[in-house]
TrEMBL record:
It comes from Qipengyuania gelatinilytica. Keywords: Chaperone, Isomerase, Periplasm, Rotamase, Signal. GO terms for molecular function: peptidyl-prolyl cis-trans isomerase activity. Residues 186-284 form the PpiC domain. This is Parvulin-like PPIase. Pfam families: Rotamase (PF00639), SurA_N (PF09312).
């Protein structure tokens, strides 16, 4: 579907025809004369949702969570947009909690507190430190716990009202497994996502909002924070983390092409897809169903010699020549410490270092070495000259890939996510919302 949208958008006049069609449906005039303030965000600071009041304090506390996670200053214009979006999120959250309560789904405060404690532990804070920290940034424990309650209530409601009606056949799963096995040796990707739903009527506004989010992310904004506050995908609760995926799991040729061309650390979007806009960040990539050599655990000896910067250059050069010759005469790791002592060199041993932890320039070099070999010398007189000797290597296990049950769960999650978007849209349509 997304590929078809892309083809239509590239056709001459297709965009104009779509816009005219949506306007004809509503019979809107081509030129508008506004009789009141055209910017609703100026006055809509709070809201009453089906009788539940969202106060200005509620909004301030939730915005503070996003501001704290942002690594760059947010401009006044951007802050106004952020506050408007967070208010919409609070409205949706309220609708989700109310819908769960209507189904007699109650979230035990103990469960909320348990999740809150886990978040505190993940940030290396005790509970009292977490409370103080949230207050110090202008938020509150109550605000974060309310968000946790909303996420838990919505997940539980979806399991009761949506998940039980989602069916995935064994044939679908087996077909996907065949595609994955056929792609063995190709790349798989660790993807983070933000999804914003749209309709033909509000697509332009949603796309503009998505562009603003991308701008903030490029300026150092926290992807996890923006995903939790803005994304409408089921991955919002985990900061947009899709985990390791294979391109066929995207089940969209357009998205497969986009992600397949990305490099680790790259941010792309917004991308127009069926039902909205997608922002994607590629955290890392590796080989499908193939062990990545960079996951090998290495045993290394670092042999380093230091110099006196005040000494004559010829003296330091002679010391360097002696060091290089001595290193070349080493016979494996067993002789390294003894010979290093004669060279006035220091030896540091690390038996549990992951190849990925090495500077990229050294990774391929060390991974192509045999046990007992050393790298070429590197460094300078000022910082010292060193070599790395490979003393051992434990290669990673070959990844078996997702099994039948895992793939079925992924397909079910995708369908539940789409149904959840429709469900939330219905809740909005039926809601009584007053703005102050």
């Amino acid at each position: 579907m997304a590929a078809a949208i892309g083809i239509l958008a590239s056709a001459p006049g297709a965009g104009a025809q779509s816009a005219v069609g949506s306007q004809d449906t509503l019979n809107l005039p081509t030129e508008l004369t506004m009789l009141t303030n055209p910017d609703p965000n100026v006055r809509r600071a709070t809201a009453v949702v089906n009788g539940h009041v969202i106060t200005g304090t509620d909004l301030d506390h939730r915005v503070a969570l996003l501001v704290d996670a942002n690594q760059s200053e947010i401009s006044p214009e951007e802050m106004q947009r952020v506050r408007a979006q967070v208010l919409r999120n609070l409205i949706d959250e309220t609708l989700q909690i109310q819908a769960a309560e209507a189904e007699e789904i109650a979230i035990d405060p103990a469960e909320v507190n348990q999740t809150y404690a886990r978040l505190a532990a993940q940030s290396n804070r005790r509970l009292e430190e977490m409370d103080a920290y949230l207050i110090s940034i202008g938020s509150s424990p109550v605000s974060l716990k309310r968000q946790i309650q909303g996420e838990l209530a919505w997940q539980r409601l979806l399991r009761r009202k949506v998940s039980m009606f989602v069916n995935v056949s064994a044939e679908e799963v087996n077909e996907l497994m065949e595609r994955l096995n056929a792609s063995k040796g190709t790349d798989e990707y660790w993807v983070w996502e933000i999804f914003l739903s749209s309709t033909p009527q509000n697509a332009a506004a949603v796309e503009a909002n998505a562009q603003k989010i991308v701008e903030q992310l490029r300026q150092g904004g926290s992807f996890i924070a923006y995903a939790r506050q803005f994304s409408e995908a089921s991955t919002a609760a985990v900061g947009g983390d899709l985990g390791w995926i294979h391109l066929p799991q995207l089940k969209d040729p357009q998205l497969e092409t986009v992600v397949g061309q990305m490099q680790p650390g790259q941010l792309v979007g917004p991308i127009a897809i069926s039902g909205g806009y997608w922002i994607v960040f590629l955290r890392e990539k590796r080989q499908v169903l193939t062990a990545d050599p960079r996951d090998a655990t290495l045993s290394l000896k670092q042999i380093q010699v230091t110099f006196d910067p005040a000494a004559d250059a010829t003296v330091n050069q002679a010391k360097l020549d002696t060091f290089i010759a001595g290193v070349q005469n080493m016979r494996g790791c067993g002789s390294a410490d003894e010979i290093a002592a004669t060279l006035d060199a220091n030896v540091v041993t690390n038996d549990q270092i992951n190849a990925r932890a090495l500077p990229e320039q050294l990774q391929n070099m060390v991974l192509n070495m045999q046990v007992g070999e050393v790298t070429p010398p590197f460094g300078s007189v000022q910082e010292g000259v060193r070599v790395l000797m490979l003393c051992g290597r434990d290669d990673p296990q070959v990844e078996s890939g997702p099994n039948f049950d895992e793939l079925m769960a992924e397909i079910e999650d995708e369908r539940v996510n789409k149904a959840a978007q429709r469900y939330l849209r219905d809740l909005r349509n039926d809601a009584y919302i007053e703005y102050n």
